[in-house]
Amino acid sequence: MLPSAKTLISITSLHFELTKLRPGDTMGSLSGARAMLAHLQRRELQLLQELSDVRKALAAQKVVLEELVEASAVPYINRLPNELLAEIFLLCRDERRNLLMVSRRWRAVVFDIGRMWSEIDMLDSLTKRKLCLKRSREAPLTLHISNFIPEPDFFFPHANRWHNLSVFGITEVTLGMISQIILPSLRHLVLSRAGTSLYDVPAMRSWAPALKHLKLIDWDPPLLPRPLSQIVPESLEELLITTSCDWDFEKDSMHFPSLRRLTLGMGNPIPFLEAIVAPKLAFFSFDPGEKESISETFTGTRTKFINVSHLDLSDMCEVSQENLQLFQLLCRVFCGIRHADIHVAYLRRFIPDRGPGAIDHCTYIESLDIQHIIPDSVQPFQDLVYGFENRLRLGRRKLHLKLTGKCFLDEVVTVNTSDTFFQRLQECCASVVLDGIPVSPGRFAIVGERVALHIGAVGLRCYNHRLTRS
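RESULT FIELD:
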């Protein structure tokens, strides 16, 4: 910090006055020496005051400069390149109308993103559908069709761009029309039609040869022996079926060479599992429906689904004798899993506090996610501790544990992680993660994977902690 011109002049004049004095002048007169001392002290005070004023003025000027820089700075969102801004907009395409009204630049970016306009609902007006089709340019299309296709001659010429297709309602007419063309880029297909038999579905391998993901909602099995594998293409990687009827085919009659994910929503999944051959299957999820009968055994080999690494039974929430029997059987069928998701209601059956349990069929399991835990109940935590301690006594490996709680719209119950049960749980697990369960840390340090607690009208939105010893 440089002194002001006034300060420099004062220092120069003081130095000049001092140089005029001779040693004899100050020593010869006591009164003269005292007068000079007083003069110097006054000048010292004046200089200190000037220095203080300069520092105050300097600090004030810095504040003014910062305010000017902040006022003239470009907002961070406006510094983003258009390419990155476009990717952000695609994450909130449902707010397209609001994005158009923010600024001219945003409006131009939104109009320039073909994928922003590529989702078309056939229930919309023809004007809107044509506008979206035009603005989508060459982007892959997502189409939602209910009952029939209006103006098919307008959309069929763009069949090479159909990427996602959802058909609801009276699907026979729609599928009959679609099967007359080829959709080479179609990857995702959803067919929803209550009570309709798959016997009426045209073979997809002829008109959707590259299909990867298929959802069949509320479909009945074929009335005549027609394996599903004759309908879907060999490229299929994900299959979801929900039905009120059990599907019963001949053993090993349906081959899915590329299938990796399978979700079944039906009463008895065992006949379907016995019928399929899927060497690449890695994920299986089951949502129980109404049961007419439950298979007591699985006639397939123990190694049939040995490549399945993830078993999701978290939707099995109703505890009954039939469900318990089916739960045990599915754990034996998928004995090679590495990860499992289960409902807390089946905790005792999966990991009992004494003796073997369903988990012992899964000799390769490494991690477990127990879902729908109620934080205000200590019972699940007690069952976990006793079950995992019993598992260690049997010489089993420690597991990575994740506890997922429910969202509450009322008050949030805090779990005390310094409780003895949590300490014992930590000791018999490789790691513990709490998701959707608010905690009071106690003796545990929080190493957050993500922490976002939102309490209000929508209740607890997300709360994820990994607990470690402090």
